[in-house]
Amino acid sequence: MRRERRDALTIAFVLLGPAAAWLVALGASYAVADASCTLRQSGRGVGLNVPVTILALNAVLAVVPVAAGWVAFRLRQRSPRGRRAGGGTRARAELARFAGVSGIGLAVIFLLGVVLLAVNPLVFWNCQ
Amino acid sequence: MSLTQGVPDTAAGQPDFDGVWRNPRGIWRSLSVVSHKPVGSRFMITAGLFFLVGGIEALLMRVQLARPENRFLDAQTYNDLFTMHGTTMMFLFVVPFIEGLATYLLPVQLGARDQPFPRFNAFNYWCYLFGGVLLYSSFAAAAVPDAGWFAYVPLSSNPYSPGPGMDFWLWGLALVELSGIGAAVEILVLTLRMRAPGMSLARMPVFAWAMLTASGLIVLAFTPLLVATSMLEFDRLLGATFFVAEHGGSPLLWQHLFWIFGHPEVYIMFLPAAGIVSQVVQVHARQRLIGYPFVVLAFVLTAVISLGLWVHHMFTTGLPPLTMSFFTAASMTIAIASGIQVLAWVATIWLGRPRFTVAMMFVVGFIVTFVAGGITGVMVASVPFDQQVHDTFFVVAHFHYVLIGGVVFPLFAALYHWLPKMIGRRLHQRPGVVVFALVFVGFHLTFFPMHLAGMWGMVRRVYTYDPDLGIGGLNLVATVGAFLLAAGVLVFVIDLVVAWRRGAPAGRDPWAGDGLEWGVPSPPPSENFSRIPVVGSRYPLWQPERDRPDRDERARGFDRAPADFRASPTTSILLAEPEAAVHLPTPTFWPLVPALGLAGTAAALIAQAYPVAVAGLVVVAVGVVGWLRRNEAERWPERSGVRVGGLPLDVHGTRAIGWWGAMATIAVLATAGGTILASYHFLQVNATVWPPAPAQRPAAALPAGLLAALVLAAAGALWLGTRAQIRRRTALAVLAVLAAAGLAAGALTVGTYAAAPPAPSRHAYDSMVLLVLVFQAALVIVALVATGLAFLRAAAGGPPGRLRLLVQVAAGYWALTAAWWALASGSLYVVLVG
Amino acid sequence: MSGAASGRGRGAARSRGRYGLASRLRSGFRGRGRRWELESIVQDSGDRSESDRLLRSLATTGATVTARSRASRLGLVLAGAALALAACGPDQSMLSPMGANASRAAGLWWLMFWIGVVVWVLVTAATLYALVRRRRDRHDPLTARRWENAPLVWGGIVLPSVVLVLLTGVSIDAMRHRDHPDASQATVVQVIGHQWWWEVRYPERDVVTANEVHVPAGRPVRLELTTADVIHSFWVPALAGKIDLVPGRSNTLSINTDRPGVYEGRCAEFCGLQHAKMRFRVVVEPESSFQDWLAAQGTSAAEPADDLAARGRQVFLSASCVYCHTIRGTAAVGSVGPDLTHLASRDTLAAGIMPNTKGHLGGWIVDPQQVKPGARMPSSDLPPDDLQALLAYLGSLA
């Protein structure tokens, strides 16, 4: 029971962690950029360095896919392929391999996604 | 009020496994059926009829556009038709059809005997049906909605859409959305908790993965739309100003909320289609799907990224370029997910030995069409290009490539693949080829020219166009194509009817399929599996040697059993180890009652007959109470401590599916609450004055008291819910205190309102405060109902696990209410900006 | 890329719309500074298809539709179909860009189009080959092949990532170069959307007109767009991408072109019953003629030249017209409908849907609901004599 719970958390982190990080990265980058522009237009500017804020946000959030990718990589290594073991163990190995492969892919692609978001304010930054 | 009556006859008489699962027949009595197959079929048939209606609307529009300056339809009729066409296809056809397919199919694929909450399932169907009928009754009232399926404000608000047209749209949609969210909750709980023993996450059919991700999306995407439509109805009915620029509102708020729903909606439709294709391709190419983990990864990727694309429908609204560039980047990222899937399908065909069945043809037609639609999708993600083609026929072409090519073609494949299972008879190959040819050719004739028409300057939603644009020829071709496409659909319907009546018997497994559904008779019996399968492989019918039906005694306990009530096992999320048995309910009319009440309320509100609306709400309340009482009254197997296959029935916490259902509901409510707070801050940032004057902020004492009452209630319920043993007297006392705290919270909500009644028509701030208080009141009511149910359970005595579960559920609602009110108070009373 | 579109040697003249050119020819190019148009037409008609097109558009124009023009309209449809096959569009499309913004969009289109074609052909070819290829190996659906996931990783993740990152870069680069003239350097034009027409204002010169945006060639123009009612969208495919007119917001759009001509535009966001008939035109003219036009538009309405027109003015001022329309220099100061001070100088009526001829104007005044059902203009029941006088007066408001 306890092991299953730990595995469930690991797999949830591997499958959903990078996704959540990307979603937060997008939402926060959008909110910072859009709100600061809107406020500036109505003369209520907040003293925020927008590019630096967005860059810092994304840099912090990029840690999540990196970590999840590492966990996924370990999961995949833990599961030698085609191991002829009894039912429960085989199912567990299958699951670890599946989550490992999916997790690595998700981590890589969402990391790319976060990087793609982060470079935008470096390329240009204005409100018009 | 006692909860001990209503023990079914079968308990007294002889145990009869088939009798327990038998569903009532006859037109009237069959309305009480709640089993997943009849309900799923009803969803599909109703949605299919709406598809035909939406198609006829499309044909009428195509006739009008066949030549420039045509006078076949007038402007008003055309606007009615395109509004209803879009609404019908999106809300009344694709999503309900897919949910119906999943409702029917998933339990059979996953090895379950029914959906987790069959009565709720029936309720969802009724809501959908009544919502659709309500929407279409606008024709009878000669007030057809005409502001487009996207209903942009201010065009859809009172000054520019007077009369009940948009109210029909809003209320009809509200019912359909409710049904959609409900069906999604069913599917979430089913796929996570009710798979056959041994079917670990890594062995789940791809279609189940697709429905799991799509259902998560429905919860996260339909809910903001429900909030947005409520806000628009506030504007229309109460004169609120959420979207009125002069009063601190913002028309862009509607667009944000609508597309936060609208973009995921595309993937809510596409993900199941991708799941269908993945399953069909492996059976018809006789090759297991290549790259299963990659396809699942692509589903997760698609689902999540689709939540972050909404702004790319708003590239022309004048947003700052940096804002838009984020969404260009996001839109490009989602294309990677499509790339993975397409390559997986092609690789599967490549390595397999494909059969040229009709299903396979639709799969191939899907791939070539969807790829084209995906490419134009990448194009419109580019801001400068999108600013040219946005709102032109290029976009019309693009999304029909994605929605017909990407969704309807796979649905045809699904029908050719699974209909033999559902109706027990084969469809004919030769008419099927004709259907495919007509649909495929007709589709491309219709929609390919639209790309050109759009780039040459034909904007969307025009009832006619100027001959000088030089697009008459293109439109004529499109109209001809549309009729070919329609002819294909007609041939399909005829073939379906003929096959249904006298097609050749399909047998269990006409395609030599891989999944559990092919191991049961066609059509499956009411209980699906008289023995619960135990799965040892991702392809149970292809690797039968890995199944161990005899090695799991817990599954063996379900062999034609139990014979005196309906039951199915529940299993753990990751490895699908059997954990408990779930008692599944039997037919009843009760779900129909609240659905009727809701429909009556909606109709009364459209007609502005407020006393009738109140009566409708009373019917809803009566229905819910009757339904819950009936549920509790039937808990006799739990109370008697029966175990099935050694698995307990009377469970609580994460082992009970009721807990998961409640958590899913809490997720829905939390999404709604989050949407409201996000809207609040959006308006706050956009308005020049917020709040209009400091004095209009309600005094802080009442909300603070409210928070204290809520925290007390939540803490009390959590304390009680986590206790190993609940003594009845303690439970009654604690629940009574809880109810008192809840009532106090309700009174304080009303008090907060009364202390400084917001005037929603004065300023969007007031509208927002009103909405926050209304939502808070709704949360308190939900939590009070949950508490009351637990109290009655405790009062009546009975299964201890059930009581704990009900207390835990109540605790969840109170915790949510307290957390949300803490956040909302933070928003209302802590000034963030300006 | 963009060369493929603009490389077909299209001159500015062919962007003449159906009414503009014809009505001008009929009226003998009345007005000032229009000679350049005629010249550019003459220059361009060396191109044979171009002159054909001119003739056709002349034939299809006019207050009455003759059988002959109906036949040539069919010809136009067929020509359109032929053009579709040749994959080149009509003049007023985004694929024949005449302005800086539209050029960038067209350039992006051709880049993405060719990449898309390559991708689509590859996938389709692979799918079809996969279906029909000969299989040698005896085959088990469950066999795991060692490298079976490689195509997914390389073809499904790596390659698309590279292409998409590239496209994102190009697209964002194009956004970066989008020009944003500030108000101090550019000509400012205010455009206000109404159901279903466009109000156009030149704040520097107090000029108000409708459904026609005149801008100088070769000088940046800053359009400031707002709406009086619902959301509209301002789109001139040949010049620039569209921009919405949103209540409570003021959006800007830059037009920057050095090619004189008349460019068709239309409302692109669904705005109610007559969304389809909410058109306008952008007239790009050389600096001098633009200044002349501006000066002329800034004056008050011409005094009636004869008795008939004088009576027409009387009719106008005593009828319900004054509640909605302004004619500067008279007592009519309504603000609901278009400013009519220089009505006769405009090429079209009722938001670009018909030529500004006496016949059309008469028909419009008598029964606008027939022409454009739902339009906010009520029908009138003027006696024939009054109507004639009114038409004479309105026709004199050059």
Provide a descriptive summary of the structure in words.
The complex is a heterotrimer of chains A (128), B (834) and C (398). Chain A is an all-alpha fold and 128 residues long. Chain A has one domain (2-123). Chain A is built from 3 helices and no strands. Chain B is built from 24 helices and 4 strands. Chain B is mainly α and 834 residues long. Helices cover 66% and strands 2% of the residues of chain B. The termini of chain B are far apart. Chain B folds into 2 domains: 36-502, Cytochrome C Oxidase, Chain A (Up-down Bundle), CATH 1.20.210; 682-830, Cytochrome c oxidase, subunit III, four-helix bundle (Four Helix Bundle (Hemerythrin (Met), subunit A), Up-down Bundle), CATH 1.20.120.80. The longest helix of chain B is centred in the first third of the chain and has 36 residues, at 75-110. In chain B, helix 5 (118-140) packs antiparallel against helix 6 (165-193) and helix 7 runs antiparallel to helix 8. Chain C folds into 4 domains: 2-71, no CATH class; 100-176; 187-297, Cupredoxins -  blue copper proteins (Immunoglobulin-like), CATH 2.60.40.420; 307-395, Immunoglobulin-like, CATH 2.60.40. Chain C is 41% helix and 16% strand. Chain C is built from 12 helices and 12 strands. Chain C has a 5-stranded mixed sheet with strand order 3-2-1-5-8. The radius of gyration of chain C is 26 Å and the shape is elongated. The two termini of chain C are 43 Å apart. Classes of the chains: A mainly alpha (128), B mainly alpha (834), C alpha+beta (398). Chains in contact: A-B, A-C, B-C. The interface between B and C is large, with 98 and 102 residues.
